[in-house]
Amino acid sequence: MSLKTAAEYIESLRQLKLDLYLLGEKVENWVDNPIIRPSINAVAMTYKVAHEPKNEDLATTDSMLTGKKVNRFNALFKSTDDMVSKVKLQRELGQRTACCFQRCVGLDGINAVFSTTYEIDQKHGTEYHHRFREWLKYVQDNDLCLQGAMTDVKGNRAVAPSKQTDPDMFVHVVERRSDGIIIRGAKASQTGTVNSHEMLIMPTLRMREGDEDYSLSCAIPTDAEGVHLIYGRQPCDTRKLEEGDIDVGNYSFGGQETLTILDNVFVPWDRVFMCGELEFAIMMVERFAAYHRQSYGGCKPGIGDVLIGAAASMADYNGTRRAPHIREKLGEMIHLTETIHACGLACAHEGWKTKSGNYQSNILLANVCKHNTTRFPYELCRLAEDIAGGILVTLPSEKDFRHPVMGKYIDKYLKGVPDVPTEHRIRMLTLIHSMTFGQIAPSYRTESLHGAGSPQAQKIMIERETDMDLKQRLARSLAGIDEREAVTA
Ligand code: SF4
Ligand code: FE
């Protein structure tokens, strides 16, 4: 079976034996847990779209390894068009879930590890690339959900992995055995681990001499022995435990992050894809980052579309839609959203073929894409909140709205234009609330800032990828400092 349905995916999660903790308690039935389930629904949408005839070309493709039809989230990029399709698929999913659907980290990870392992083998005569291909075929054939595990907890940021007081601040090899390796450490802010069958471990940063044990990439099942998952809190998460669906806002969908503990986890050699080749750690990191920074050009515009629609609806409900300043603000929201998407498309179009045969997004433009994403969603949230009005943060609860005595006052006094029910106005307000600082907000605001690397990481890459010497030569020539170019020569 190469294409799971959404229902089959959700059922498959029940087979996992995760060691998961939420709000201080071990969670046994996490699939039906009301705090976790919306995040599972968001991933399930990536399975659903693969079965929709109108989205077939976006959501599925032929495997570069087997030629079989696979979900795009498990596919290698065979062309620049594949990367364009990725970003369009992400926009579609962002529009339909208005949150992080979590599956892109794995997609971007497999492409980075595929090309990097090829080049490690070329230099060192190792067999990582073959192992990786075999493991990826297994992932594709079973349509597994895959999570990329990159962000180490990092401890003292001023000190290299091998120089930390506590050696476990970066995931590392603690023992090499004839049958495999033992690894230890923790990955922070891991997207979608609880909803994944497998995790692909990659290093976080450039490695230097002495960091050999930290130059590591491998794959492990999410329920491997020694893996402990601690569910991250989100604003307003316990609203999901209350009766009713209004106060949650985006009731069906949500993102998910965990603190992922790897406590002496055994990894057989056929799942180890880099182990000590420290000069290749940065190649894997930068290639992954360029893929994932492109991804934000898909999901964030999709979420932005929903926020723009919600803001325009609130303007309708408030009776302000025709006011010039509201139209100007909605126009600005569209401009910001399309700018992010344009960058996501551009870095796909400007991609290049790696030695291994898959395609890599343009690193400079991908970093520009993500850097815009560190800023624009904040402005989009500000504008949506501006248009919605202050009632966004002072609304009574759904319980009060349903109250036999108080309910009629809320219905009367929180009404906007006469022909729109008060409940619609309240529902649109809580949707905006959830997206701008409620439970979805982390994946639209702070995640836009820090996900796929904090702003300074992009600034460094933008500077590194820019040919400043060329720009200065252009300026010197036109200023007449260097010889001017003759037009008729
Ligand atoms: Fe995908 Fe966006 Fe979530 Fe990253 S933040 S996993 S790109 S949906
Ligand atoms: Fe992310």
How would you explain this protein's 3D organization?
With 489 residues, the protein is an alpha+beta fold. The chain has two domains: 9-281, Butyryl-CoA Dehydrogenase, subunit A, domain 2 (Beta Barrel); 283-469, Up-down Bundle (Butyryl-CoA Dehydrogenase, subunit A, domain 3), CATH 1.20.140.10. The chain has helices spanning 6-13, 37-48, 56-59, 80-97, 104-124, 128-141, 281-318, 324-349, 363-373, 376-388, 398-402, 406-413, 422-436, 441-444, 446-450, 455-465, 468-479, and strands at 20-22, 25-26, 60-62, 69-71, 146-149, 172-176, 180-191, 198-201, 216-221, 227-231, 257-268, 272-275, 352-353, 359-360. It has a six-stranded mixed β-sheet, with no helix packed on it. A four-stranded mixed β-sheet has the order 5-8-9-12. The longest helix has 38 residues, at 281-318. It is globular, with a radius of gyration of 24 Å.
Descriptive labels:
17 helices, binds iron/sulfur cluster, alpha+beta, four-stranded mixed β-sheet, binds fe (iii) ion, 489 residues, Butyryl-CoA Dehydrogenase, subunit A, domain 2, six-stranded mixed β-sheet, 14 strands, Butyryl-CoA Dehydrogenase, subunit A, domain 3
Give me the CATH superfamily of the largest domain: Butyryl-CoA Dehydrogenase, subunit A, domain 2
Overall geometric form: globular
Radius of gyration: 24 Å
What is the correct CATH architecture of the largest domain? Beta Barrel
User: Which strands sit side by side, in order, in the main sheet?
Assistant: 2-1-10-11-7-6
Question: What fraction of the residues are assigned to beta strands by DSSP?
Answer: 5-15%
How many domain modules? 2
Structural class, by secondary structure, is alpha+beta
CATH topology of the largest domain: Butyryl-CoA Dehydrogenase, subunit A, domain 2
- As a percent range, the share of helical residues equals 40-55%
Number of helices: 17
Low-confidence stretches: none
Largest sheet, described in full? 6 strands, mixed
Distance between the termini: 64 Å
